[in-house]
Amino acid sequence: MTDATLQAPSGGPLAGIRVIELGQVIAGPFCGQLLGDLGADVIKVEPPGVGDVLRQWGKGDASGGSVWWQVAGRNKRSVTIDLRQAAGQQLCRDLAAEADIVVENFRPGTLEKWGMGWDELHALNPGLILVRVSGYGQTGPFSQLPGYAAVGEAMGGLRSLVGYPDRPSTRVGVSIGDSLAGMFGAIGALAALEARHRTGRGQVVDASIYESVLGITESLVADWSALQVRRERTGPILPGIAPSNVYPTADGEVIIAANQDTVFARLCAAMGQPQLATDPRFTDHRARGKHQAELDDIIGRWSETVASGELLERLRAAAVPSGLLYSPADMVDDAHMRARGSLVDVPTEGYGPVTMQGAFPVLSETPGGVRWGGQPLGAQTDGVLREVLGLSEDRVTELRDAGVI
Questions:
Q1: How far, in Å, CA of 216 to CA of 235, rounded?
Q2: Phi/psi zone of residue 198: left (φ > 0), alpha (ψ -120 to 50 degrees), beta?
């Protein structure tokens, strides 16, 4: 991929917005990924020699590369700077002075130790927005504790809800706490950009993992506060919401969600049992919730006699929400995902074209996109330092010889 290909993007709703990403692993980098997908020029600062530790995570090739990195590092220009050296800290301050947004997910206090706290950066660039992603937030008695996603998911209430009631709590199969924190960080950055249009001033966006998880737990706390009702682990169902479950078929499983009265009536007709819609046990939402297990058993005994493909044809013809439990193999061959650009084939170095998720949400006038996959460590260091900071080739060479970049 040529240097010209990796210049700051010219399209997308955030074209012209420069982001300096200082974070590592998932939470901060996911925030940067979202902003990059929307067209921002994301300059990712990594430690020389090793880079973001995510470069070594997940599945990879024999040389130790990471396919995951192709997703997490996409649309970013990789620059190496040693932030533990004074000269590296000055370089980073200089970059921040030319940026719109800085994203970091170090333990609170780390930027301050390096002379790059909010007071210093705001003085250099009053319009700068600083997105700070952490386990517990920048304030409060837990703020200085190390906080990983697993702990934030537990504190935010999610871990107590995931799994089966007769077994220990389990986890979602992705680092959902990190990703939610990165997403809320990106939302906060966009809100701060809008506020800057009115005030001309930047601000700090404080996005914690535990609060990002807490924010999506619906009425979990309110149920307890108002009614002293505690939600528990319930496996594949939500108590009182029926029918909505995974049901067996002759050759696998399908999801059926028909808990609304009119939809349930259509399901009953598709099952050839229209009388169930007027059965007193199932006639309305509360009745179906009360007899949830009984209803699931009736539907399961019907669904297991039909192959998945035929079952979905019947249900979709009846306008009943339903679908397969998709695997990656199902996704890459899915006509709907391809038609919408949900999955795209991205050129990468080392793996050829790699299929990965596209840029969401879809904007009608200024859509985002995936321009390139994760780049080799420091591939754009020289170009960015010359372009953004105006450094000479000799100065870049001096910094490299000193181990700063």
A1: 18
A2: alpha
Distance in angstroms (rounded) separating the CA atoms of residues 33 and 360: 11
* Residues tagged active-site: 178
Distance separating alpha carbons of residues 99 and 122, to the nearest angstrom? 11
pLDDT digits (tens, 9 = 90+) for 6-22: 555 558 999 999 999 99
Position 349 scores a pLDDT of 85
Q: Which two tokens stand for residue 56?
A: 């070594």
SS (H, E, C) the chain: CCCHHHCCCCCCCCCCCEEEECCCCCHHHHHHHHHHHCCCEEEEEECCCCCCHHHHCCCCCCCCCCHHHHHHCCCEEEEECCCCCHHHHHHHHHHHHCCCEEEECCCCCHHHHCCCCHHHHHHHCCCCEEEEEECCCCCCCCCCCCCCHHHHHHHCCCCCCCCCCCCCCCCCCCCHHHHHHHHHHHHHHHHHHHHHHHHCCCCEEEEEHHHHHHCCCCCHHHHHHHHCCCCCCCCCCCCCCCCEEEEEECCEEEEEECCCHHHHHHHHHHHCCHHHHHCCCCCCHHHHHHCHHHHHHHHHHHHCCCCHHHHHHHHHHCCCCEEECCCHHHHHCCHHHHHHCCEEEECCCCCCCEEEECCCCCCCCCCCCCCCCCCCCCCCHHHHHHHHHCCCHHHHHHHHHCCCC
CA distance 211 to 184: 10
Can you tell me the distance from the alpha carbon of 110 to that of 117, in angstroms, rounded to the nearest whole number? 8
pLDDT tens-digit map of 215-250 = 999 999 999 999 999 999 999 999 999 999 999 999
pLDDT tens digits for range 262-295: 999 999 999 999 999 999 999 999 999 999 999 9
Place of tokens 């190496």: 80
- Are 136 and 208 in contact, with CB atoms under 8 Å apart? yes
Is 27:70 a contact under the CB 8 Å cutoff? no
- Gyration radius from the chain CA atoms: 25
Cα 291 to Cα 242: distance, rounded to the nearest angstrom: 9
Token pair 């297991």: residue: 304
Mean pLDDT across the chain, nearest whole number?
Answer: 94
CB contact set of 281 (below 8 Å; sequence gap of 6+):
287, 288, 290, 291, 294, 295
